[in-house]
Automatic annotation (TrEMBL):
Binding locations of ATP: G10, P11, A12, A13, S14, G15, K16, G17, T18
Lineage of producing organism: Bacteria, Pseudomonadati, Pseudomonadota, Alphaproteobacteria, Caulobacterales
Location of the Cytidylate kinase domain: 6-202
Name this polypeptide is given: Cytidylate kinase
Gene: cmk
Gene3D superfamilies assigned: P-loop containing nucleotide triphosphate hydrolases
Coiled-coil residue spans: none
Length: 215
């Protein structure tokens, strides 16, 4: 029997992080926001003056990532999201982050991981998988408000352009592209409040847990 891993994937600002946090609290599981790892590598690579299109160089930077950087507010900025998606195309970067994510997922009591490739590559055997989405316009509005709340005021159109560019890059890359796993539950949160989305996610995971317990 595998441990109870909940894989939460989906595009930028779909609400997957909020849902992952709520699921972690509801099921008593630790949560890993894997996007932060890529954001960390992107920020480190930029600070090092690395050519972001150089897979070997950025891959080497990825091996130096340490947990203390993950709390840095610089990782939550708009710029860091763009840097993250640029470095995330390199297989060398993805390989450098693999063991940490798999070890987190292998915790004896189970875990929740959110990202782009959790249900497809990191934890293909996860007993519970969600693919959270919403229209680009709604996601851009959410991200725009979130950035404003962090003191980063940007035009809505620019945030929408970011979201579209990131969707295309994350979904179009060869290495672990963002895609719904065949056995993932689709959760379209376009018309949902956070509460409604979290409730729907909890119900899906409760059903998956019941199946897992009897398997
Ligand atoms: O919060 P948001 O969805 O905007 O981004 P994030 O989850 O922090 O991820 C930032 C970027 O990291 C994404 O656009 C992906 O390019 C990359 N990423 C990835 O490739 N694989 C993951 N498991 C998580 C993030
Ligand atoms: O992790 P991801 O980038 O997918 O999204 P998030 O950080 O969970 O959510 C992005 C923003 O949208 C946050 O400020 C959430 O509070 C907000 N949100 C929302 O307004 N309605 C939802 N149904 C989900 C998230």
């Amino acid at each position: 029997m595998t441990t109870f891993v909940i894989a939460v994937d989906g595009p930028a600002a779909s609400g997957k992080g909020t849902i992952a946090t709520r699921l972690g609290a509801a099921f008593g599981l630790p949560v890993l926001d894997t996007g932060l790892l890529y954001r960390g590598v992107g920020v480190l690579a930029e600070r090092a003056g690395a050519d972001l299109d150089d897979p070997e160089r950025v891959g080497a930077v990825a091996t130096t990532l340490t947990a203390d950087l993950l709390d840095d507010a610089a990782l939550r900025t708009r710029a860091a999201g763009e840097l993250a998606s640029r470095v995330a195309v390199h297989p060398q970067v993805r390989a450098a982050l693999l063991d940490f994510q798999r070890s987190f997922a292998a915790r004896p009591g189970g875990a929740v991981l959110d990202g782009r490739d959790i249900g497809t590559v990191i934890c293909p055997d996860a007993p519970a998988k969600l693919y959270v989405t919403a229209t680009p316009e709604v996601r851009a509005e959410r991200r725009w408000k979130q950035l404003a709340g962090q003191g980063e005021s940007v035009a809505y159109e620019d945030v929408l352009a970011d979201i579209r560019r990131r969707d295309a890059r994350d979904g179009g890359r060869e290495a672990a592209p963002m895609t719904q796993a065949p056995d993932a539950n689709l959760l379209d949160t376009t018309e949902m409040t956070i509460e409604q989305a979290a409730d729907a996610a909890r119900r899906i995971v409760e059903a998956a847990r019941a199946r897992w317990e009897t398997s």
